[in-house]
């Protein structure tokens, strides 16, 4: 009886300690790891969210760029960090695709993180060099299928969003093209504008300016609905490729085991950031918008990552593209 009483008291003590910790959280600055170099789309999203969360939490949320190995170095650091809510990860679709792309990951993307919430979906666009002969998406598909040995498809490197979108495009049209990988979106876009490569699929954050400036041709946006910043661009569904649906979603994570109360407090700050007018305005300039409140939850993000792993696994395996 005494042992049972002691056990109950111990559990109550631990619960009380956890509650007290959550109430005082955060008592010092929080680090938000971005697993890519500064200045890119994910870094921009992170800095906007971090600034707003800092105001809500009353402690600075500091963005730290830990690039390398397709985003896996930064993710590994957060997976191994103390589960106290002071080290977070803001990652994109690569959080899910890395499970198949990389043979030896030092962490499990589906189980080693506590989701805080989805942040935003950045649409992709199917674009080509200015001189490309096809007038619309239907003509584009017909042309590349008839000239598969001549058409080049650029991407920003293995595992990049442009690479994933390109693989999905080739699978949907049943045609393999000559892919040209670059070390980032910048040089890939430069060569597309210069006419050295033919076609690319990339984020609106990287293509909108070039499309509006007439430097490249645009054929479709890869989301179910049109993008406000490119109102004349049809969706892949409306243009005849309904299977090419992909957006570069971003999610916010803490290490597995982070107290539920802390996760909830972080989620509250994230929700406030997604409602922030400044954040919404800057997102709109980037061709995206915050996800709805019902999607910005820990439960939705955790389930979404697992679903995306399963979605991309056969596409990556069929393409035979892996990284060590």
Write the layout of secondary structure elements.
Blueprint lengths: L1 H23 L5 E5 L6 H17 L3 E5 L6 H8 L7 E5 L2 H8 L11 E17 L7 H10 L5 E4 L5 H13 L4 E4 L3 H10 L4 E5 H9 L3 E6 L14 H4 L7 E9 L4 H16 L1 H9 L3 E2 L7 H22 L5
Parallel strand pairs: 1-2, 1-3, 5-6, 5-7
Antiparallel strand pairs: 3-9, 4-7, 4-8, 4-9, 4-10
Helix pairs in contact: 2-10, 2-11, 4-12, 6-12
Looking at the overall shape, the CATH architecture of the largest domain is 3-Layer(aba) Sandwich
Structural class: alpha/beta
The H-and-E topology, N to C, reads as HEHEHEHEHEHEHEHEHEHHEH
Query: What is the CATH topology of the largest domain?
Result: D-Maltodextrin-Binding Protein, domain 2
The residue ranges in which pLDDT falls below 50 over 5 or more consecutive positions are: none
* Rg from Cα: 22 Å
The count of DSSP E runs of length 2 or more, i.e. the number of strands, is: 10
Task: State the distance separating the first and last CA atoms.
Answer: 56 Å
> What's the pLDDT, averaged over the residues?
90
What portion of the residues fall into strands of 2 or more residues?
Answer: 15-25%
- Please write the CATH class name of the largest domain: Alpha Beta
CATH homologous superfamily (4th level) name of the largest domain:
Bordetella uptake gene, domain 1
Shape type = globular
Residues in helices, as a percent range: 40-55%
Report the sheet with the most strands, covering strand number, pairing sense and barrel closure: 10 strands, mixed
The total number of structural domains is 2
Counting DSSP H or I runs of 4 or more residues, the number of helices is 12
